[in-house]
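Journal club side-thread
Mid-discussion, someone asked how the predicted structure for our own chain would compare to the paper's figures. Pasting it here so we can look after the session.
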Amino acid sequence: MSGTTLPPVVVATSDHYRAAAEALAQHLGLELVANDVSSVDLSNVLRIIVGDELAVLSGVGRQERRISVDFAHSSLQQRVKSGSKDLLVRACGLHKAKHNIRRVMDATAGFGADAWVLASQGVEVIAIEQDVLVTAMLENALKRAQRLGLEGAQKLTIFWGDSVLMQRQEPVDIVYLDPMFSGGRRKAASSKSMSFLQDWLAHRYSQQAHSALFDWACKTASSRVVVKRGIKATPLSAYAPTFQIKGKTHRFDVYQLAGDS
């Protein structure tokens, strides 16, 4: 995406998806090209493809790159199958045979991989994303997962908006945070999806008030706040975490609150 200089365009794969494409284009403030891209220099523009799968394309030929959210992807399903061995699952305490966690809020959802893993553990997950396009991609992926009958699809709910400004009435046991640029831009993106997120969302997340987000999380959660960090990154808060779950490249800082047991 780094070589893209022209504004992105929205493309409907067929007339069946034209209305949805028009709505998304209007929401994003972008041009709708419908299903005719003959007038577009494809090598120099990002295309948001609206069809059964909502995807983002850049480049052409061998340089073409396709980004979408797929909860049925083999790598994500492998994480689900790992169950209690997954570091995030352990950080949230879901590996315990008996736990009291019923609802988790992923306040920085991104492409939803972590939210999906948690929902697949049988707890209700509220995933909040403040970018319009990313939210639309999440909603599209969730609909496809529901049609496939994937485990976890009925446990995940997606909302668009700013987590700190949203008013939630239901109690939340855990708030999970993965601030994308809290430790600086991730120099080596682990995947093309992460690279896209960093490029697409840099203008927003580089200005995110992380201390305010953390303070809000502590007031919202009743049990614990879990924060994903690079393995060498400083903690998100001045407060030391209660404990940490460490992997090779990242770790989870766990802040236990008064209601944790």
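Post-session note: The chain is about 30% helix and 25% strand.
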